[in-house]
UniProtKB/TrEMBL annotation:
This is Membrane progestin receptor gamma-B. Signal peptide: none annotated. Belongs to the ADIPOR family. The lineage of its organism: Eukaryota, Metazoa, Chordata, Craniata, Vertebrata. It is a multi-pass membrane protein. It comes from Fulmarus glacialis.
Amino acid sequence: SRFLEVERPRFSKASRTLAFVYPYLFDSIPLFYRFYLCAVESCTEAAILVHYKHTVFAFLTCFIFASHLPERLAPGHFDYIGHSHQVFHVCGIISTHFQMEAIMMDMAEGHHRLLPTSLLPSSLQTLGSMGICMAVSLAVIGLCSMSLRFMPEP
């Protein structure tokens, strides 16, 4: 997107914003579903409030990145302190803090439910699944490397 910045600055900005927004929204689908369930069933989980804070700061981070506030309102006054890029990073860090706090609260709250019912995999199962993954990855690399042999030289 940086190569397009001179020719098409709006498209460049939109593609860079989309590169961060799309994965966040996709990864947050379970969280948004949990918000929906809590709104319908009026849940009393303590972590939901912290998840709300995380989500608000995440959207604020995106808004500040896309809008270039406050320097757009007062050009020249926020060149060194208070620039939108600095505020963007501060909001992102606060959002991440709330996200980690909510995850720790969820883990502490749900730990007693998960521990008795879950069976830990054995060492053989862990090493076996790692070996299968490595073998499949090496097979894909080998097939792609072999296909290069049959391509004509430029």
